Amino acid sequence: MVGHYHNGMDLLTTKDIERIHLVTDHLQLHRDWVIVPLNCATHSVETVLPDGKLLLRPPGGDLLDPWIDGLEALLSDLDLSRVARLGVNDPMVHLTGAQAPHSYGTQRYLEGRAGQNIGRNPTL
């Protein structure tokens, strides 16, 4: 593969990332739980992070194509039991989107008492 460079970094193309996702799709891994940084690493990294997400850092240059071809074998050596599978809702969906807990600032904390001089009111 001829590298795609920006500011001295070897970058992945969308076709490269799609090829990686085809391998992880074949293993029934949820795409939202597969992290593929856009810049290539000097040495490849395949690891399951503490939160269960799969981090894949492919090598750059001429090493990329053989790495993708052997990716399924590399992943078979990992414990992928904590990685979310295709067809399963994101296990952390309750922390994102409309289901996320809503944070409230001091206005809710003061429950409508905004504007009162707190320093002079000892009952607060």
Report on this model:
It is built from four helices and five strands. The chain has 124 residues and is of the alpha+beta class. The strands form two sheets. Strands 3-5-4 form a three-stranded mixed beta sheet, with no helix packed on it.
Which key terms come to mind for this protein?
124 residues, alpha+beta, three-stranded mixed beta sheet, two-stranded antiparallel ribbon, 4 helices
Topology (elements, then pairings):
Elements: E1 4-6, E2 9-11, H1 14-26, E3 34-35, E4 45-48, E5 54-57, H2 64-69, H3 71-76, H4 106-110
Parallel strand pairs: 3-5
Antiparallel strand pairs: 1-2, 4-5
Question: What is this entry, summarized?
Answer:
The chain has helices at 14-26, 64-69, 71-76, 106-110; strands spanning 4-6, 9-11, 34-35, 45-48, 54-57.
Provide the gyration radius in Å: 23 Å
**Ends apart, CA distance between termini:** 68 Å
The assigned structural class equals: alpha+beta
Strand order of the largest sheet: 3-5-4
Q: Secondary-structure element sequence?
A: EEHEEEHHH
The proportion of residues forming helix, as a percent range, comes to 10-25%
| Main sheet characteristics | 3 strands, mixed
Tell me the overall shape.
Answer: globular
| DSSP helical segment count | 4
Query: Spans with pLDDT under 50 lasting ≥5 residues?
Result: none
Strand content: 5-15%
The residue-averaged pLDDT reads: 79
Number of strands: 5
